[in-house]
Amino acid sequence: EFAPEKGLRSIREIIKDLSKPVAKRHLRSRKQGGKEIQYISWHDAVKYLDHYAPGWNYEVRNIQNIAGKLILTVRLSVPCAEGIVFREATGQEDEDRENYGDSSSNAESMALRRASAKFGLGLYLYDQ
Questions:
Q1: What is the pLDDT of residues 19-39, one digit of tens each?
Q2: Nearest Cα to 75, choosing from 94, 93, 62?
Q3: Which residues pair with 77 in a beta bridge?
Q4: Per-residue pLDDT averaged across 47-63, rounded?
Q5: Nearest to 116 by CA among 76, 62, 71
Q6: Which strand (E) or helix (H) includes residue 80?
């Protein structure tokens, strides 16, 4: 079913492409823990996935409320020559957060970016 002749690339090639540095215009920054960190927004992560991992799929697997935090677990699946490869990640947000966005969308954004990083997208940014 999954074969290179059908246009699917190997997972190694997909990860190699997703691991390339993110274009500076797609990097955002914020202060966290007293220092400036760079990150990629969820909507730019989607564009990179669309480009380098066409046919990718994403699903929320679990939602929990623990000690005032909303915790989402997501699965990101990528079709490739070897079959469907997936990575899971979590995102969390304080439920009483008063900053931009609501707790569920912020937690989901974090989880999507973390799952994408497990395929290489922006992974180097975590070295900050």
A1: 999 999 999 999 888 999 999
A2: 62
A3: 57, 86
A4: 97
A5: 76
A6: strand 69-80
